[in-house]
């Protein structure tokens, strides 16, 4: 059994990968000697990331390199690596060295000392990130906290150390729309924060433009709360009360012998009601679209190649069919082609 798996999704990280490999390897060796595996997932990069991984894998027997068939996005790439991991403990970390791999020692120590199943990095500061990103992240996590019943820790990413039983629980959640930090919070067990200072990217630029951040935010809200669906009822009641008040006002004016004037007010009311209805329809659409995507039951990702010692019979991509109890693997979305 491998003591430690380190899982790192990489998208266009050519400029980071050598330094990443060096620092992560040093941190892992210090903790567990060679009893670890380093799983790098190439998430359909357009640069030389996969070539670098192949080069490193040829030299480093600890390295498992997974090549996805296309870009599936951070959360799914991470899932692919987690699916293949063998370790008793699993460290999730970004490829850009914003989260220092050296904190592995502290995370291990905390897990041992306090018997925790998850130790997650809590960002007390974030270097080199724009005010806009920090502000939107702060607002988003607080909104999410108000909308959901489970406690998703504020100011955390996916940087965390997990026990095998916590990871197995996480991997039993089948959804396509994955917001992993929230899903980890949902599984429970003892989860403890480890405060740290988030560094600047080692090289390159963020791969989370506004569009991807918004999508993750929508996945988070729809995945963990149905509160927005009740908005229609609340909005309807509010508008009903307003209508009553307006009715009373017109009656009052009529009794005093006047009429309420107004093409403008009518037109405004029509537009207001129309936009409220469209907004609520859109909200319902967000949920409906996700129901549709989940109902199709497609694999979460497609694997093109795996280099290195991979978990035999690992279920790749498909959920809900993990294989029979006698070890017969379930439906697999990719075969492990090259096992060294
Ligand atoms: N990433 C990925 N697929 C994507 C986008 C990002 O695997 O489509 C990886 C990326 O290589 C990095 C991690 O996800 O290891 C976090 O991305 P990034 O550093 O760009 O996000 P930020 O730290 O700016 O939120
Ligand atoms: Mg980053």
Which terms would index this structure?
340 residues; Spore Coat Polysaccharide Biosynthesis Protein SpsA, Chain A; 2 domains; eight-stranded mixed sheet; 8 strands; disordered C terminus; binds uridine-5'-diphosphate; binds magnesium ion
Provide an overview of this structure.
Helices cover 48% and strands 16% of the residues. Strands 7-5-6-4-1-2-3-8 form an eight-stranded mixed β-sheet, sandwiched between helices. The protein has helices spanning 14-32, 49-59, 74-84, 104-114, 131-147, 164-171, 180-187, 210-224, 227-255, 263-296, and strands at residues 4-10, 36-42, 63-68, 89-92, 118-126, 156-163, 191-198, 303-307. It has ten helices and eight strands. The protein folds into two domains: 4-225 and 298-307, Spore Coat Polysaccharide Biosynthesis Protein SpsA, Chain A; 227-296. It is elongated, with a radius of gyration of 25 Å. The protein is an alpha/beta fold and 340 residues long. The structure holds uridine-5'-diphosphate and magnesium ion.
